[in-house]
Write a structure and sequence with these properties.
The protein has about 350 residues and is of the alpha/beta class. Helix content is about 40%, strand content about 10%. The strands form three sheets. A four-stranded parallel beta sheet has the order 2-1-5-6, sandwiched between helices. It has a two-stranded antiparallel ribbon with strand order 3-4. A two-stranded antiparallel sheet has the order 7-8.
Amino acid sequence: MQENLVIVESPAKAKTIEKFLGKDFKVMSSYGHIRDLKKKEISIDLDTLEPDYEIPDEKKKVVGELRKSAKAAKKVWLASDEDREGEAISWHLCEVLGLDEEKTSRIVFHEITQSAILQAIEHPRHLDMNLVNAQQARRVLDRLVGFRLSPVLWRKVKPALSAGRVQSVAVRLIVEREREIQQFKSEPYYRVNAIFAVEHEDGSKHEVKAELNKRFKNHDDAVAFLEACKNASFKVASITKKPLKRTPAPPFTTSTLQQEAARKLGFTVSQTMMVAQRLYEAGRITYMRTDSVNLSTLALNKSHEEILRLYGEHTPTNATTIHRPRVRRKRTKPSARRI
């Protein structure tokens, strides 16, 4: 009999985790959700809002294999992702596989490293039904909005369009913003920029760029100012020197990752998340669906060790002692946590 069965979402992740846990653990994948609302029906009791789930045909083989392994194992560990969808997947696994929620251990981790996995095994918890209910509420709203509004779009606008809980609201916000843009009355103005050649005492020259702290409403006023400056002399009133401190950018959140990938690489959101998912499953990055900018203790320690290995106790440029990377904290209201 197998001692331990660990169920994760991704097969790639399963292979990596199994290497970390050793021979006493068997790691299997649910390949995402194992059941969902019926596709061709609304599948929701409109009086009680109770969802009606089914196991899709393409998941029946996976469910059969998981049932067989769960019955043969002494202990089952649910290791789906730590978000609403992941918590719901663990709950569905309990329901479908007939697992006792009180005796089934739920483990979570934010990075696929041996220390993170072993620490998760040492600190299991029970299912968080608040997260499960939040996911179910979202799924029910998706189905109610989609099934009721999409047919209206087909009749009034264009066939094959879909309305959703999020995209319908987002479209309205975009339309309202576009109307504001169209109603905006722009007023042109003119700026004056200059490049001065400053000669130093040693005869060397240096360019200094400056901008006039005034705007001109019409072209003639700007030209008249430039004409008046032709024979004027200019001097530097004062020079201020101060140290420049550059703070590194915070770690990526889901949104900033998508923004930078689009800006620098031209990636779509789906491309970015697909690549990020592969990197996460390979243990290269932490979990990519997050709004946290905190760094783990493991990442801080490893970063510090690598800096010391490359540069020693002092940087080669200014001989300043290298400080440990700082821990970032992001405060949020308790009510804003995972809705």
